[in-house]
Amino acid sequence: MNKEILYTMATDESGDLIHIDNAIKGSRYYCPLCKGEFILRKSGKTGKGSKRPHFAHNELTSNCTPEGVLHYSFRKLLISILNKHQSEDKTLAIKWCCSICNSKYSGNILAKVASIKEEYNLIECRPDIALLDEKESVVAVIEIVVTHKPEENVLQYYKMNHIVLIQIDASSEEDLKRIEEKAKNPSTVELCLNSKCIKYGNNKTRRELLTETKMCNACFGLINACTVRTSHVFGILHSTDFNENEIELAKAKGVRFEMRVTDATNENYPQIICWNCKRIRSKFASRRF
Questions:
Q1: What are the tens digits of pLDDT across the range 116-168?
Q2: Is residue 197 part of a domain?
Q3: What range defines the domain where residue 20 resides?
Q4: From CA 49, how far away is CA 153, in angstroms rounded?
Q5: Is 185 within the bounds of a domain?
Q6: Most exposed of 37, 144, 172, 210 (fewest Cβ within 10 Å)?
Q7: Residues 73 and 185 placed together within one structural domain of the fold
Q8: Is 235 in contact with 247 (CB distance < 8 Å)?
Q9: Is residue 3, in this structure, part of any structural domain at all?
Q10: Closest among 93, 95, 170 to 128, alpha carbons compared
Q11: 165-175 burial string, b = 16+ CB within 10 Å, else e?
Q12: How far is CA 178 from CA 21, 48, 147, 184, in A?
């Protein structure tokens, strides 16, 4: 059973967000949403019947809830982390798995981001956080889900406009203590780079076939090899996920393939082999940047 969500974030008299762990008795604190004054409930007692430290409204307003404050606080703190990484030119690596084909990926959430906007007006919707590129186009949005997921019309808007949706679920105030971890492992990322997946093509990606001369692992002779470089919103991926056109183009450039079958899924995939010794060249490992 999920714990009751409590008010654990407040603003101080300077307007800064304060977590309950850092609150001091005798100081004045306010609700981040309705701006009403808070009472500090921090007795230090533990055991049956005692309640976790929290803030409480002096006079509760009808449209203010702990869930709303959790959502607001999470958004503000996440924006602060994103801005800090961007200003220091640091990567913020995220990992995600396609919900359809289970392909796993990683990338830098700030790879193509020039600016970060809170509740940016897209006419159809106002995402919690919008990530814009140098042309001021929204390339990705972050939606923080505490109680309500984005509505279907919003999901369709993102899809039609090739905007990558990153969804981060926040289920308790404990999530406020691990925002960066939650950001690095989002609940959902609507982006798949597997050309065989039905999700592929929903977002703007650029594929380029790269051919090069390599040394054979077995006979040490020179062979032609290739990879596919996929540029996407979170960086660049090198892989051997070839489509039919890329295979034909690679063959025209002297790359030799044999079709193999995976043990796990029984699917066919092209394997590069050596012209000289006919041995299988080791599959390129996917490299993510």
A1: 999 999 999 999 999 999 999 999 999 999 998 999 999 999 999 999 999 99
A2: no
A3: 9-64
A4: 44
A5: yes
A6: 210
A7: yes
A8: no
A9: no
A10: 170
A11: bbbbebebbeb
A12: 14, 27, 19, 10
